Amino acid sequence: MTLQRKLTRTVSIGPVAMGGGAPVVVQAMTNTDTADVLKTAIQVAELARAGAEMVRITVNSPEAAAAVPEIRDQLLRMDVDVPLIGDFHYNGHRLLTDYPACAEALAKFRINPGNVGFGKKKDEQFAQMIELAVRYNKPVRIGVNWGSLDQSVLARVMDANATAANPRSANEVMREALILSALESAALAESIGLPGDRIVLSCKVSSVQDLIAVYRDLSARCDYPLHLGLTEAGMGSKGIVASTAAMAVLLQEGIGDTIRVSLTPEPNGSRSLEVQVAQELLQTMGLRAFTPLVTACPGCGRTTSVFFQELASEVQNYVRAAMPQWRDQYDGVENMTLAVMGCIVNGPGESKHANIGISLPGTGEVPAAPVFEDGVKTVTLRGDNIANEFKDIIDRYVARTYQRKA
């Protein structure tokens, strides 16, 4: 089954295309002090090498703005050419004006209309940032967030709701204010001179059901590309489950052109986990292919040995480590499927469905592990060297199956 995606405008962000039928793009964000050039460049490179196709960085101070072109130069020395997105709040109009090299080095600006200014200065400072985006030929994500929603828009929607014949719930009012803030800001940006094909919208919340509802409505009311993501997904399994639950529904309905899984990392943990989760979400839904995925048995009373668990983990880690080299050498290897199964009940059948599968013996079964390649049994492995032998089979399969790049 091929998912039908809503056709939105195409926005080019450096070499990356968003919308217009282009593949859903994976985005990530750093959590370093942007003024620390080397530390930020190292984290951007880590995210890019993990598969992030755009990386957002905070630009919140003169020191951070001055560092942006140096970060870009450092990344190029590291052979990393990922588009950098500048995240601006409160003082972006000043920073982009005072540091033109920062504006030049960024591939896109992210503007939060709730934090661009207050009172009479709001429209003036928003217009200043849009004029700079026009001058430097940069696309803009107008990113509304329910934690920093423009209070004047919210007040207007609340006042209208108070006099309505059928008043809406508080959540519905909040969602309408988010959408109006995004759409009115986009219309203002276009009136200032920013072309519609340089505008991306987002309306981010931290509730799964609210995210689904707001993006369904936003998608029905515009054809701008949309950036998806819970604004604060949370830590660990909670963050992964919440992000997947919300975005999978929208992606299934054809809504969304770029995604970010906004996980709270473990202390000193790798930031690249959010990239891995985003890739796996898109790949398991059949929207993108990034790396061979391993189907593995969950285990039961028939699989009292931990060997199949160890082998599944070893194979997955091996494939991820080999993928950068394979990607450079072979076309289509990211579509390969693997299976590591634990007993005779589903092992042979599941292994036959994968490009390469191995069915390990369960408790009390004959100590033999048949290997299947494209549905055909090719060898039976035995002994203590099964893991290395199976990895050799994978290497040989890749070399003979996928066409070498010129």
TrEMBL record:
Which cofactor is essential here?
Answer: [4Fe-4S] cluster
Q: How is the cofactor bound?
A: Binds 1 [4Fe-4S] cluster.
What is any one GO biological process for this UniProt entry?
terpenoid biosynthetic process
Task: Give this protein's Gene Ontology molecular function annotations.
Answer: 4 iron, 4 sulfur cluster binding; 4-hydroxy-3-methylbut-2-en-1-yl diphosphate synthase activity (ferredoxin); 4-hydroxy-3-methylbut-2-enyl-diphosphate synthase activity (flavodoxin); iron ion binding
Query: What does this protein's UniProt record list under function?
Result: Converts 2C-methyl-D-erythritol 2,4-cyclodiphosphate (ME-2,4cPP) into 1-hydroxy-2-methyl-2-(E)-butenyl 4-diphosphate.
PANTHER family xref list: 4-HYDROXY-3-METHYLBUT-2-EN-1-YL DIPHOSPHATE SYNTHASE (PTHR30454), 4-HYDROXY-3-METHYLBUT-2-EN-1-YL DIPHOSPHATE SYNTHASE (FERREDOXIN), CHLOROPLASTIC (PTHR30454:SF0)
Q: What class of enzyme is it?
A: oxidoreductase
Enumerate the spans annotated as IspG C-terminal domain: 294-395
Annotated organism of origin:
Fluviibacter phosphoraccumulans
Full protein name: 4-hydroxy-3-methylbut-2-en-1-yl diphosphate synthase (flavodoxin)
InterPro entries per record: Dihydropteroate_synth-like_sf, IspG_bac, IspG_bac-typ, IspG_C, IspG_TIM, NO2/SO3_Rdtase_4Fe4S_sf
Which catalytic reaction applies to this protein?
(2E)-4-hydroxy-3-methylbut-2-enyl diphosphate + oxidized [flavodoxin] + H2O + 2 H(+) = 2-C-methyl-D-erythritol 2,4-cyclic diphosphate + reduced [flavodoxin]
HAMAP family given in the database record: IspG
Keyword terms of this UniProt record: 4Fe-4S, Iron, Iron-sulfur, Isoprene biosynthesis, Metal-binding, Oxidoreductase
Q: Family, per the entry?
A: Belongs to the IspG family.
Per the UniProt entry, the Enzyme Commission number(s) are 1.17.7.3
Q: Indicate which residues the UniProt annotation says bind [4Fe-4S] cluster.
A: 297, 300, 343, 350
List residues of the IspG TIM-barrel domain.
8-278
